[in-house]
Amino acid sequence: CENLFCPAQVRRRIVHFASRGALDIEGLGWKTVDWLADAGLVEDPADLYHLRAEDLVKLPGMGEKSAANLLAGIERSKSAPLDRLLVAIGIRHVGARIAQILAEHFGSLDALEKADEEALLGIDAIGPEIASSVVSFFSSKVGKTFVQKLRHAGVNPESKAPRRAASTGPFVGKTFVLTGTLEELTREDAARFIQEAGGKVTSSVSSKTDAVVAGSDPGSKLDKARALGIEVWDENRLKTALKKAGVVPAAR
DNA sequence: AGCGTTACGCCCCGAATTCG
DNA sequence: CGAATTCGGGGCGTAACGCT
After folding, report:
1. Taking a C-beta distance cutoff of 8 angstroms, is the pair A230, A210 a contact?
2. Strand B: which residues 109-128 of A lie within 7 A (CB)?
3. Which stretches make up the BRCT domain (predicted)?
4. In-domain check, residue A86
């Protein structure tokens, strides 16, 4: 089903909106979204912001605690950083990476909405396809009303000023890939720290990769790294290097 | 209390697509 | 073309929660 309004698509969008890479709203999985949609409470993700506890508790499998948690999660999502919101919105070709770039470049949803293709094309890593995808989303009827609804609900985040990445040190200009499970750091944290240290984290191993950081239960990326003769780091080596670079990984 | 559902927090993979 | 990403699919163990 391609129609953006068919039930399956609506639910997909909502689940995506709330999913982990996006706004990370607790309590919104497929099943819950099914109930919400069946009950006619939501027609697009922005409707989440109008849900009320009274309505929620009536749903099967949803008690006071779940309702409260869900509402708290939705409330919290209003203050999510811009890049997360962009991922949540679900514009074609805009995932974590591009969202981050767009957020840093434009700083606010308003600014991005007004951007034309030319402005987008000027940005590194943005080509015609992504540019037109972004522009056509914000000029489409669906996109406009959606953004409008979000704004009404009080969602219009600005991106935090990007932390100035280190300009010297062992990470600068190097590309890292993470694989396996790290112990003390989450992948997200590890990636952030590496970036702050001036390094880059990508998602696939190639000859351009400088080092692969392998945790336990590593996947095929480690094999590829070995095959290509790329340095393999363990978590300790990463932490030591981060410390040396002046980025102290706080224990969580 | 026990059961079923869901979420969470990690993760992997492949196909398709895009950028340069 | 090579490198990198998105996207959508899946997995697994643990924990929280609502219901009966």
Report:
1. yes
2. 124-128
3. 166-252
4. yes
**Strand C close to A31 by CB, under 7 A:** no
Q: What are the strands of the beta sheet with A231-233, ordered from one edge?
A: A200-202, A175-179, A211-214, A231-233
Among residues A102, A121, A101, the alpha carbon closest in space to that of A110 is found at A102
Domain that holds residue A188: 175-244
Q: Which of A58-73 are b and which e, b meaning 16 or more Cβ less than 10 Å from the residue's Cβ?
A: ebeebeeebbeebbeb
**Is the CB of residue A183 inside 7 Å of nucleic acid strand B?**
no
pLDDT tens-place values along chain A, 252 residues long: 334 456 666 777 788 888 877 787 777 777 777 777 777 788 888 888 888 777 777 776 677 777 777 787 787 788 788 878 888 887 877 777 778 778 878 888 888 888 888 888 888 777 887 888 888 888 888 788 888 898 998 887 776 655 556 667 777 777 887 877 776 667 777 777 777 777 777 777 777 777 878 776 666 677 777 777 777 787 778 878 887 877 765 433
Residue ending a domain, choose from A77, A98, A124: A77
Q: Specify the 3-state DSSP secondary structure of A90.
A: coil
Same domain? For A233 and A183 the reply is: yes
Q: Provide, in whole angstroms, the distance separating residue A3's CA from nucleotide B19's C1'.
A: 29
pLDDT of residue A183: 65
Quick one: A134 and A194 in the same domain? no
In a domain, A158, yes or no: no
Please state the pTM of the whole predicted model: 0.84
A195: left (phi over 0), alpha (psi -120 to 50) or beta: alpha
Question: Which residue places its CA closest to the C1' of nucleotide C2?
Answer: A206
**Number of folded domains that form chain A:** 3
